[in-house]
């Protein structure tokens, strides 16, 4: 109770409402009662004007060399004398506070601070009267700077592919406890496959578009194409970290498929895999990473390294729904070599996919067709595609539904009706449901009479065989003859005329040993008609045939010594050349043998005409075949 008011109850504390007392001194005591009597406490006298609570002090400065802080009290603002203060501090990674009290000089120094450590310090004060203030805001102060410790956690960001041309070097920032000061920059050494060594030194203050740093990660903007190994270290004013090494995966080296299981929502990602039964002694740890599809380097990307005897990786973050994330599992050896084990696509929340970009019908037959489609792009799948659903609809066969696995993107529709129109629809299906349909229409062909088809094929084959046999027979029907096409029209060569030979022999005594020079249009100016007796015709024929046997050239001989030209007749006389001119593909006409029927008919006609031994001697096969006989001339 206090003077003027009595409050009864069983509570151990009470609140005196403001309206029940005036500013000034109060006398308060407590009295306890029961059936046996009562007892009264001592009285307490206090002034309500002294019940004040000032704002917390403000920390004005700090000194890293001695880890000392200073603050200003707010008692001066209330025109009161400063009272004692309390200080508490903790290391950044700790949960418990260390407290020191009754500090009256406005500063405090932490004794024996831990190196490379950040401390959080809070202060509260009171004036000579009143209550103590609340704790001030935490003031962070770093212990004296030293060279950074440890090494960088380095990795590569290759997007959703694993090609080195798409990769950039990425690493996680050092924690403050390892940085031991302000990180000024990074130094990297890039070793290329051709033996070239490139040194890259980038300042954090002036990155020059070659370095991009976020809250937790940094990465270079240059590609790792052609790089075999890389090492990188961070440095401050006191020194640098130990270089961290990483070897690039060997191009073309196939990955080892290993099952990966994902549990994913919009805030957490859990990756698990089976422990391999063939663990190498060189295996150091597993690396699990995720990458948002379509994201730029360094964004939507993170990795975690776990020990080789563990099979789970955990991530915390914000994962966008309907967005694909590629999760990959790697092994990292003690020699820093990287081997890709497996990859899988995951979604924090799945939706219905878009339609396929292309759907076509090929190889249309009477009872079957082949369907082909392009996969839904990854950015528009909105989930893991379980299968493609194909619906074939027609008036005759009705509706048929087929569920086809995602790869390959082709399907053959069988058991169709000939000559019918069909409508085919296809759509992708995810765990959230089916997507939009893509439609194609076609009409099957009519059944053909296979008897007609077989007849046409057999007829064509037989015709081809007959043509081939006829061609071979015509081309090679003579012994030791050049296989020239037999369809060429045979034009007689006027040089084979006996008249032409006699004329040349008269003009040139050497002409009998050589073939006359080829003339495109030879002039035949000698035509002699001699009346002979009938009885001399047969004897002349015998002479002529004997002469032909003596002067007929051998088939196949070639004039290989020289060309006999008009202006080289004297030199040509020294060499004896056959009368067969193979340069132009011609032979003597006298070698051409007519049929027996035609030959007999000519001999009968000759017996009825005038003849003489002189005519038979100067008449060759050419004149006999093409020139008119004396009998024919007289009739005209």
Fold and architecture overview:
With 636 residues, the protein is of the alpha+beta class. The protein folds into 6 domains: 58-142, Immunoglobulin-like; 153-247, Immunoglobulin-like; 260-346, Immunoglobulin-like, CATH 2.60.40; 359-443, Immunoglobulins (Immunoglobulin-like, Sandwich), CATH 2.60.40.10; 449-488, no CATH class; 494-552 and 562-635, no CATH class. The protein is 14% helix and 32% strand. Strands 29, 30, 32, 33 and 34 form a 5-stranded antiparallel β-sheet that branches. A hairpin with a 3-residue loop joins strand 16 (211-213) and strand 17. The longest helix has 26 residues, at 450-475. The protein is elongated. The termini are far apart. It holds the Pfam family fn3. This is Interleukin 12 receptor, beta 2a, like isoform X3. It is found in: Membrane.
The share of residues in extended strands comes to 25-35%
How would a textbook summarize the main sheet? 5 strands, antiparallel
Q: N- to C-terminal separation? A: 176 Å
How many beta-strand elements?
A: 34
Which oligomerization state do the chains in this entry correspond to? single chain
Mean pLDDT: 77
Class from helix and strand fractions? alpha+beta
Query: What is the share of helical residues?
Result: 10-25%
> How many H/I helical runs?
9
Instruction: Calculate Rg over CA atoms.
Output: 57 Å
Which regions have little confidence, pLDDT < 50, spanning 5+ residues?
Answer: 479-489, 509-518, 539-595, 609-618
- Count structural domains: 6
Q: What is the approximate shape?
A: elongated
InterPro entries: FN3_dom, FN3_sf, Ig-like_fold, Type1_Cytokine_Rcpt_Type2
Biased composition (Polar residues): 610-621
Keywords: Glycoprotein, Membrane, Receptor, Repeat, Signal, Transmembrane, Transmembrane helix
Family: Belongs to the type I cytokine receptor family. Type 2 subfamily.
């Amino acid at each position: 109770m206090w003077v003027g008011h009595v409050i009864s109850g069983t509570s151990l504390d009470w609140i005196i409402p403001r309206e029940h007392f005036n500013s000034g001194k109060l006398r308060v005591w407590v009295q306890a009662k029961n059936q046996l009597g009562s007892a009264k406490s001592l009285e307490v006298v206090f002034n309500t004007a002294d019940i004040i609570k000032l704002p917390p002090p403000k920390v004005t400065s700090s000194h890293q060399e001695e880890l000392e802080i200073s603050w200003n009290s707010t008692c001066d603002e209330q025109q009161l004398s400063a009272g004692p203060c309390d200080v508490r501090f903790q290391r950044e990674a700790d949960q418990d506070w260390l407290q020191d009290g009754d500090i009256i000089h406005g500063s405090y120094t932490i004794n024996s601070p831990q190196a490379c450590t950040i401390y959080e310090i809070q202060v509260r004060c009171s004036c000579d009267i009143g209550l103590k203030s609340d704790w001030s805001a935490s003031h962070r102060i770093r212990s004296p700077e030293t060279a950074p410790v440890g090494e960088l956690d380095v990795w590569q960001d290759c997007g959703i592919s694993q090609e080195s041309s798409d990769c950039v070097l990425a690493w996680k920032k050092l924690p403050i406890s390892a940085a031991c000061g302000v990180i000024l920059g990074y130094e990297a050494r890039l070793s290329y496959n051709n033996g070239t060594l490139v040194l890259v030194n980038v300042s954090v203050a002036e990155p020059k578009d070659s370095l991009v740093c976020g809250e937790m990660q940094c990465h270079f903007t240059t590609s790792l194409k052609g790089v075999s190994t890389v090492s990188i270290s961070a440095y401050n004013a006191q020194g640098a970290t130990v270089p961290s090494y990483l070897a690039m995966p060997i191009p073309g080296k196939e990955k080892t498929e290993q099952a990966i299981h994902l549990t994913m929502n919009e805030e957490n990602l859990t990756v698990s895999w089976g422990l391999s039964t063939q663990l190498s002694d060189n295996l150091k740890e597993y690396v699990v990473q995720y990458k948002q599809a379509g994201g730029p380097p360094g964004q939507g990307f993170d990795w975690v390294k776990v020990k080789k005897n563990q099979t789970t990786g955990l991530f915390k973050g914000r994962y966008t729904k309907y967005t694909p994330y590629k999760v990959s599992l790697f092994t990292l050896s003690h020699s820093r070599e990287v081997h890709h084990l497996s990859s899988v696509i995951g979604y924090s929340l799945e939706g219905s996919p878009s339609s396929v970009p292309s759907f076509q019908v090929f190889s249309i037959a009477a009872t079957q067709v082949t369907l082909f489609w392009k996969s839904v792009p990854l950015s528009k799948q909105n989930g893991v595609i379980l299968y493609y659903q194909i619906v074939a609809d027609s008036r005759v066969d009705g509706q048929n539904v087929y569920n086809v696995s995602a790869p390959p993107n082709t399907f053959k529709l069988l058991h169709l009706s000939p000559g019918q129109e069909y409508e085919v629809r296809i759509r992708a299906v995810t765990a959230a449901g089916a997507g939009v349909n893509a439609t194609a229409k076609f009409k099957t062909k009519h059944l053909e009479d296979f008897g007609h088809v077989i007849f046409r094929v057999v007829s064509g084959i037989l015709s081809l065989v007959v043509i081939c046999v006829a061609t071979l027979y015509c081309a090679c029907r003579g012994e030791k003859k050049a296989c020239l096409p037999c369809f060429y029209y045979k034009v007689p060569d006027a040089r084979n005329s006996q008249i032409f030979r006699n004329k040349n022999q008269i003009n040139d005594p050497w002409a009998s040993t050589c073939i006359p020079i080829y003339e495109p249009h030879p002039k035949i100016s000698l035509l002699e008609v001699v009346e002979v007796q009938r009885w001399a015709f047969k004897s002349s024929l015998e002479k002529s045939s004997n002469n032909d046997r003596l002067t007929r050239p051998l088939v196949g001989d070639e004039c290989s010594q020289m060309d006999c030209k008009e202006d080289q007749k004297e030199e040509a006389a020294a060499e004896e050349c056959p009368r067969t001119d193979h340069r132009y593909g011609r032979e003597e006409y006298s070698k051409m043998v007519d049929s027996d029927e035609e030959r007999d008919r000519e001999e009968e006609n000759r017996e009825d005409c005038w003849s003489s031994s002189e005519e038979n001697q100067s008449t060759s096969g050419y004149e006999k075949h093409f020139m008119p006989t004396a009998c024919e001339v007289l009739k005209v």
